[in-house]
Amino acid sequence: GNKLVVDLSHCMHNMLLYTLEDGLKRLAEFNAASAEEQERMDKGYARSLFSWANSTLELMGEMVKEQALAAVFATKPLARRTAAVAITFVDLLCGRKATSLKLKGGSSAADFEFEPRALLQRLVRVLLACGHHFDLLDALATHDDLELPTFGKMASILERERMLEPQELTRLRETLEHVGRLAAAKGVGPVSATSAAASGGAGPPPI
Asked: DSSP letter string over 121-149?
């Protein structure tokens, strides 16, 4: 039974990254196209990709409300995969490449059913449900691609848009500080947890 749940969780991780990465790739292609080319491009598949990403995160959110299922995502053997997916997800939406997500021409995110803030909100709620497990915090802190300022930018965006309850925002900042302390203790995170949680990073938030 537990192996089946682990396998399902692996599939959900893969689905989440595939749909988000491919959807964002199609947005980038749309931005690079001329106005005439944009008129001919099909937005339907991109809409489906973002819909699947939303649905996958929504299902994850419901699953991790059960402590036993939260433990599956946040402890070995899945903790490192959950951390990697979260880091990639946040980087795609808030990192250096995220500025290219602003749509050009007369199109808007709504045309693609692309809701980056809602995606971040759902991801944060999954992480908060899992964040009391040391395996996940350690996996985040020791991951080679962790950029705490990018997570801090995410927190700032969600605070600005009032998309988290005050207690959720407090717990998110506490979690980032904990990850920062773990990273510093292991010599892999030069950025302090407080500055990472408060920083907007380089440049304005892209979403």
From this structure: HHHHHHHHHHTT-HHHHHHHHT-TT--HH
Query: Dmax of the chain from CA atoms?
Result: 54
How far is residue 180's CA from residue 201's CA, in Å, rounded to a whole number? 15
Q: How many CB atoms lie within 10 A of CB 155?
A: 23
One digit per residue, the tens of pLDDT, for the chain of length 207 reads: 688 999 999 999 999 999 999 999 999 888 888 888 888 888 899 999 999 999 999 999 999 999 999 999 999 999 999 999 999 999 999 998 776 667 777 777 888 889 999 999 999 999 999 999 999 999 999 999 999 999 999 999 999 999 999 999 999 999 999 999 999 998 865 444 444 444 444 333 445
Burial (Cβ within 10 Å: 0-12, 13-18, ≥19) of residue 67: exposed
